[in-house]
Structure formats: structure tokens, C-alpha cells
């Protein structure tokens, strides 16, 4: 190759690289514009979802959030995770408030997709929060089904959450998860003839009450105390144990009175409805 040929070659290569740089800059600019537009559209869809939620149109809200998550996932996985959690929460609300089991099934699926957006190693607390939501959706659906598979999955999800949502790291979240675990175990225990699951539930409630004290979070304390009391009543009935029955009655009474005085009518009504059977059990065991 002559000197002239080499010079031409270098010039051509230089011009081609300049062209590539121009195109590369254009691609970056377009990508940034696409990101900005996607995040802006997601914000609008999030506001639309909020409006639908106010009107209790949870399915419409979930649809908006699904579109928003699809728009932003390639640009911002954390934002996509937040949108998926909100979407799952709206689907859970639809299932819980309107008896829509299909919505609960969808919520379970969305929570599971959320786990992929918040890997345990990189985002342990977000992963644990997602497991908590998954457990709640599984439990709600499991309580409506005759089998126990969903409830077993709920127990597994809550226990997985506790692996990261530790007492030292997030004490009140840990306590709430222990209460939810207790609820799932208690439901399983009701459906089984033995007492093992009920005993596990009582232990979970006891753990919750170590952090969720009456002085610290009185309403959370009342819920955990009352739920443990209901479970203790079942245990007392199966064991014919007067002392446990009396403890159960005392706890259910305390929960009812605390919630009544705080004007939490629905929860207070639930524990008030448990009192007649708890009193009847105590009276019967005293006569035996």
C-alpha cells in the first residue's frame, strides 16, 4: 500500500468513526427521551390509578399500574417494582372487599413477578415486603378454599419474609409478620384435628407481642392479643384445659375492650362475637 493509499484509508476510517459517534450520540439522546417519556407516562397512569382507587375501582387502577410498570421496567426496575406492588395491592383490595377470587389469583401472580424485580441479595427488605404481600394474598384465597395448599404457601411466604425482615432490622414489621403468620397457622389448625398448628400459631402471636406491646402500638397489640386468645380457646377446647380457656377469655375480652374504646368498630365486633363461645367453654370446663 502506498503512502497515499494509507492516508486515504485513515481518512475514510476517521470519517466512518465520526459518523458512528454521531449515530451513537443520537441513540443515547433518543434513549434518554424514551426514558423521560416512559416515566412521565407512568406518572400519569399512577395518578389515573389513584383516582380509580378513590372510587373503589380497583381493577381499573390495577390496569393502569400494569401499563405503567410495562413502560418503565426497561429503564428503572425499582420504579417498576413499586408499580407492581401497588398493582398487586389494588388486586388484593378488589379480591378482599368484593369477594373476587380471580383478583386474588392475579395479585399472587403480580407479587411473584415483583420478587424478580427485587432480588433478595440486592434488595432484601423490598423482597421481604413482597413476600409479605404474597403471603396475605395466598392466605385470603386459602381461607376461601376447602384445601390447605394456599395456606401452606402463605406460611412459607411469611417465614421467608422473616428471614430478612428480622426483629433487629425492623422490629414492628417483624411483629406484624409474626401476627400474620399466626393467623395463617391458626386457620390451618382449625382445619386439622391435632394441636400442632395451633401451638405454632400461639408461639407466633407470643413473638409478635414481644415487640408489638400495648404501650408501643395499642391497636396492633389488641389484634395480636385477641387473635392469640381465639387460638387459645380452640386449644383449650381440644385439650379440655380450663386454665387455657380462662386465659383465652381474658385475652379476647382485653382485645374487645381496647378496640371498642378506640372506636375500631369492625375489629371490636369480631372479638365481641368470640366472647359467648369463650365464656361458654369456661363455664362448661368448670363444671367438669
What would you say this structure looks like, in words?
The protein has 2 domains: about 15-165, Alpha Horseshoe (Serine Threonine Protein Phosphatase 5, Tetratricopeptide repeat); about 165-288, Serine Threonine Protein Phosphatase 5, Tetratricopeptide repeat (Alpha Horseshoe). It is about 85% helix and about 0% strand. It has helices at about 5-55, 60-70, 75-100, 100-115, 125-145, 150-165, 170-190, 195-210, 220-240, 240-260, 265-285. α9 (about 220-240) packs antiparallel against α10 (about 240-260). The protein is elongated and about 110 Å long. The model has no long low-confidence stretch (mean pLDDT about 90).
Write the layout of secondary structure elements.
Elements: H1 3-54, H2 58-72, H3 77-98, H4 101-117, H5 124-144, H6 149-164, H7 171-191, H8 196-211, H9 218-239, H10 242-261, H11 265-287
Helix pairs in contact: 1-2, 2-3, 3-4, 3-5, 4-5, 5-6, 5-7, 6-7, 7-8, 7-9, 8-9, 9-10, 9-11, 10-11
Structural key phrases:
288 residues; mainly alpha; Serine Threonine Protein Phosphatase 5, Tetratricopeptide repeat; 2 domains; 11 helices
- Tally of distinct domains: 2
The major β-sheet equals:
none
Give Rg in angstroms. Answer: 27 Å
By CATH reckoning, the class of the largest domain would read Mainly Alpha
The appropriate CATH architecture of the largest domain is Alpha Horseshoe
Molecular shape:
elongated
Oligomer: single chain
Helix content: over 70%
Amino acid at each position: 500500500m502506498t503512502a497515499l493509499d494509507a492516508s486515504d484509508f485513515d481518512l475514510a476510517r476517521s470519517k466512518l468513526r465520526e459518523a458512528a459517534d454521531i449515530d451513537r450520540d443520537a441513540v443515547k439522546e433518543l434513549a434518554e427521551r424514551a426514558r423521560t417519556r416512559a416515566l412521565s407516562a407512568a406518572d400519569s397512569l399512577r395518578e389515573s390509578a389513584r383516582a380509580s382507587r378513590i372510587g373503589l375501582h380497583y381493577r381499573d387502577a390495577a390496569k393502569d399500574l400494569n401499563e405503567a410498570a410495562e413502560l418503565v421496567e426497561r429503564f428503572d426496575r425499582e420504579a417498576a417494582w413499586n408499580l407492581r406492588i401497588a398493582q398487586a395491592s389494588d388486586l388484593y383490595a378488589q379480591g378482599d372487599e368484593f369477594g373476587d377470587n380471580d383478583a386474588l389469583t392475579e395479585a399472587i401472580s403480580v407479587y411473584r413477578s415483583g420478587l424478580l424485580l427485587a432480588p433478595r441479595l440486592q434488595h432484601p427488605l423490598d423482597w421481604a415486603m413482597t413476600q409479605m404481600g404474597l403471603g396475605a394474598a395466598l392466605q385470603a384465597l386459602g381461607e376461601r378454599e376447602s384445601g390447605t395448599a394456599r395456606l401452606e404457601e402463605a406460611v412459607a411466604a411469611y417465614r421467608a419474609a422473616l428471614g430478612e425482615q428480622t426483629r433487629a432490622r425492623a422490629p414492628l414489621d417483624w411483629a406484624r409478620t409474626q401476627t400474620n403468620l399466626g393467623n395463617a397457622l391458626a386457620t390451618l389448625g382449625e382445619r386439622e384435628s391435632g394441636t400442632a398448628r395451633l401451638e405454632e400459631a400461639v408461639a407466633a402471636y407470643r413473638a409478635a407481642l414481644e415487640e408489638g406491646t400495648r404501650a408501643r402500638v395499642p391497636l396492633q397489640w389488641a389484634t395480636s392479643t385477641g387473635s392469640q386468645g381465639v387460638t387459645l380457646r380452640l386449644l383449650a377446647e381440644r385439650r379440655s384445659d380450663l386454665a387455657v380457656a380462662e386465659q383465652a377469655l381474658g385475652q379476647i375480652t382485653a382485645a374487645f375492650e381496647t378496640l371498642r374504646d378506640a372506636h375500631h368498630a369492625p375489629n371490636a365486633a369480631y372479638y365481641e362475637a368470640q366472647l359467648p363461645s369463650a365464656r361458654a367453654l369456661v363455664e362448661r370446663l368448670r363444671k367438669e
